[in-house]
# Entry
Amino acid sequence: MRGVSSSRNELVRWQFDLTWSLLEFHLDRLSAADFRWEPTELCWTLRPDDTGGWVADWADTEPDPIPVPTIAWLSWHIGWWWSVATDHLAGRPPRQRTDIGWPGPGAPTIAWLRRLRTDWIAILDALDDTDLDAPSAYPWPADAGLTNAHLVSWVDAELMKNVAEIGQLRLLRAARTQVA
# Structure
């Protein structure tokens, strides 16, 4: 990790590197079978489609009770929101949720997440204070008055939450396998 600095860009990068290190811990330990393990009957996952791709379970209005996501769903979800966040900061038209494909269980998804990290680092390293202070319209409405610094902080928070969920699912599956 980088040393402590007074630059906001350096702080943003340090925070991201810390969060990423927690995901990397789990990525190194995931098996392909972990991705589609369903911890309960009420869960969201990725399902094969007729073209050889994958379709994410989704509802435009959050159901009650909320389904437990699988690691497959969580990894696709990370890829979706992170790709769109990157699009926003890179000045590209943001992709739609249905345009974000999931590579499949195991190594393909792990490699995809690592590529997303590489893309994100390139964006972060190019930001200066003026860029961070610029208005952002993602993931909230354009009139919310929030900035790219808020977007970058949100990415860290969302990634941290998803890392915790992936870790918990991985640990639960491992514990159940040991007991069985």
Q: What stands out?
A: Residues 1-6 have pLDDT under 50 and may be disordered. The CA atoms of residues 19 and 161 lie 10 Å apart. The beta strands are 43-44, 46-48, 54-56, 68-69.
